[in-house]
Design goal:
Chain A: One of its GO terms (cellular component) is molybdenum-iron nitrogenase complex. Chain A: This molybdenum-iron protein is part of the nitrogenase complex that catalyzes the key enzymatic reactions in nitrogen fixation. The complex is a heterodimer of chains A (about 450) and B (about 450). Chain A is built from 17 helices and 14 strands. Chain A is an alpha/beta fold. Chain A folds into three domains: about 140 residues, Rossmann fold; about 110 residues, Nitrogenase molybdenum iron protein domain (Rossmann fold); about 140 residues, Nitrogenase molybdenum iron protein domain (Rossmann fold, 3-Layer(aba) Sandwich), CATH 3.40.50.1980. In chain A, helix 16 links the parallel strand 13 and strand 14. The longest helix of chain A has 23 residues. Chain B has about 450 residues and is an alpha/beta fold. Chain B folds into three domains: about 120 residues, 3-Layer(aba) Sandwich (Rossmann fold); about 140 residues, Nitrogenase molybdenum iron protein domain (Rossmann fold), CATH 3.40.50.1980; about 110 residues, Rossmann fold, CATH 3.40.50.1980. In chain B, strand 2, helix 2 and strand 3 form a beta-alpha-beta unit. In chain B, helix 7 runs parallel beside helix 10 and helix 12 packs parallel to helix 17. Classes of the chains: A alpha/beta (about 450), B alpha/beta (about 450). At the A-B interface, strand 1, helix 2, strand 3, helix 3 and helix 4 of A face helix 1, helix 2, strand 3, helix 3 and helix 4 of B. Strand 1 of chain A pairs antiparallel with strand 3 of chain B, so a sheet runs across the interface.
Chain lengths: ~450, ~450
Amino acid sequence: MLNMTPKEIFERKALRINPAKTCQPIGALYASLGIHNCLPHSHGSQGCCAYHRSHLTRHYKEPIMASTSSFTEGSSVFGGGANLRQALKTIFQVYDPEIVAVHTTCLSETIGDDLPSLIKKAREDGIIPEGKFVIHTNTPSYVGSHVTGFSNMTAAMVKYFAKKNGASKDTINVVPGYVEPSDMREIKRLVGQMGIKYILFPDTSDVLDSPQRARFSMYPKGGVKIEDLKDTGSSKITLSLGKFASEGAATLLDQMCEVPYKVLDLPIGIAATDRFIEALIEVTGKEPPESITDERGRVVDIMTDMLQYFHGKKVAVFGDPDQVISMTEFLVHLGMKPVHIVTGTPGKYFERRIKEIVKGVVDNPNVKAFGDLFLLHQWIKNEPVDLLIGNTYGKYIARAEDIPFVRFGFPILDRIGHSYFPTVGYRGAMRLLEKMLDALLDRQDRDAPDSKFELVM
Amino acid sequence: MNGVVLKERTGQVYEKGAGPFKLQCNLDSLPGAVSQRACVFCGSRVVLYPITDALHLIHGPIGCAVYTWDIRGALSSDRELHRFSFSTDLREKDVIFGGEKKLEAALLELIERYNPEAAFVYSTCIVGIIGDDIGAVCKRVSKKTGIKCIPVQSEGFKGNKRAGYEAACRALINLIGDGDIEGISPFSVNILGDFNLAGEIWIIKDYYRRMGIEVVSTITGDGRVKDISRAHGAKLNVVQCSGATLALAKMMKEKYGIPYIRVSYFGVDDMADALYRVADFFKDRQIMENTKALINDELNKLYPALKEFRRELAGKRAAIYVGGAFKAFSLIKAFRLLGMKVVLVGSQTGTKEDYEELEAITDPGTIIVDDSNPLELSEFLKEKKVDIFVGGVKERPIAYKLGIGFCDHNHERKEALEGFIGMYNFAKEVYSTVMSPVWRFVPRKEG
């Protein structure tokens, strides 16, 4: 199907072909699911909410709950205020969440619904019951990407709840970024093993990887609790993992409650994980237990065992900026050559950072923020690669060009594992190593003539 | 069962036998409900999407394009232009200054690059608000390129999915009427309302071929612009499903005097009925004989194969929640054929007539529901002690979380469920999920 992608590259200004991103509200919805007892609410037409739920359902294979303001023609003319009031009534009456996290859509943004006033009025009129919360963020679909939406909703958690209340001075905040429930679980495990008290937000573990219990629950047991969000303002420091998805919340916390922060790359790959652990040591003075050092050692051991299979291989990577930045660095440390790197999310920092990482390894890397998969495919046609890494949509290119393919990032609609096995931390690095090696060695086996087909590799 | 039903929704839920039948439908969803419904754009997009040699350009922010990118598995026998995601990816400045120029540039570039047979330009919520005149852009580009560019007025907020079907049909009627209809057989049909999921339309086309009937066009599954442009040359429109393309059949009747019949290709009775009714229409002895022979032949193969499944499945209980209600009729019959009992049936977009028929064909005690939500559905499933739930993407994990079987009778089906072979596939799928050993490991179900 992609055999019509031309090799020659031309400037396109008005057109996106096979995008490498999606819109803000889905990211906001995902972040909201990381609050305990929260019902995400989409302020706009039904379609947006249906699409976001379907897309997330396909990725997580879990029921994704979210309500919608169900805009009609009337609401788009007269504003969605009445719809939001009715929605909040319905939600608290029937679904009884502790908190409703409202995100806007391009429709409600453009007609200019003033969410803070609407929420304030609903509170005054008793539509929001005592002890219940409604927070919101603005997520116009025509700005940024799903990563921006995640970042905005995470910042909204700070905006509505963070207080300098003197709760605990030795707690650290960790903003995990737009990662899988498995990654959030792994980050908690690492921090926990270091004996550090932490508040992780948002936290979708135990929400989107919930076990089979023969019952349906609107609000599975996971998610950051509101009292913890309130305490974030009293933490010692915030560690934000991933500049694109997590810096917003950290800077806001600093402004509001003077909690200093550090922005780190997502701890994907060995060096980025090292930096995360080092940062934990630095801010808490605690040393990692032997178990963590052992994990690291195992990663290095695999890398040394298999280095010849990675060395010099050309790779194309695409996906969300935070993931792609760390992955690119990991590839460089494996002796590979990331030659084509694309994210759909806009932002100049991405290109700068990637060029910094591949400096001295790849002479003229193709790097683009705000790009799409059509462009990536064209680059690959001009300079073929040995491995393609990205979300499910990469399978079209992998097939068209017959390239080994590792699924990584969001969304993954055609495989499972991503929400159960982390890619962050040393364990995550091990899993990535296994996946990449499998892809490369399966290909070597497949292509080898009988005479070169080997048992031991 | 009233515990979980919203007060405002009680008119949309009915338990057969509990008082005289009355069900509200076609209402806007209550704001705040976790509705399973989608929007106008979604309706138009799904109807037009399987036209494989047309360009589908979505004018709006990126999400609308991403979420409908190759998501339904509508198969093509050759070109696959429908599987791309093309979007104008509107940004903030376009929303302020208007996106018409961008749209025109995008359309021109795509037409030059992909040389489509026609182009559909979909309007999204935001385009409706900022007021881009996509009709004017389409007209200009058509003139410049000679390619028919058709605006699809599918702003999401202008109703529900059903309104989107109609918008798609209004777009489609523009394609019909240009083609040369010389030489079309007097025994000819258009197939409407099938999307060729898992190759289903190929099964149905083969049946018509064996009956001696020419299929002029398939609208929209495995659809081709050129065939559709000749659709007015067919003698009969055969419309499947609850109404995605019913509006088109009506328009074609008015404009070209082509009669239509509504059929279902799901289940044995409905499949046979569909073919007989088509044969009847042509009043030709040979066609009728061919049809009888075909059906006999297929049933002789099918019945022995179904027996095994029936023995194990008899007495099991099924729940159905689908997009269009028409599908539900066939499903109820199909479950009966397997000896199973349908205890819940509902749809997102059923009409008054649909629900009246559902009431007529279901057993007492069956819950009939319009525009339901996960909380209601899961309560109903528990209450009725269901063994299998039939639904779409968002229903699947709910069923699994409850520890019951699931069958996708929506667009995620991977096996053809239409035709006689489809009944076999359906039985096999129901069997494999209901009888799966995995349920042994599910914690004991709560009272």
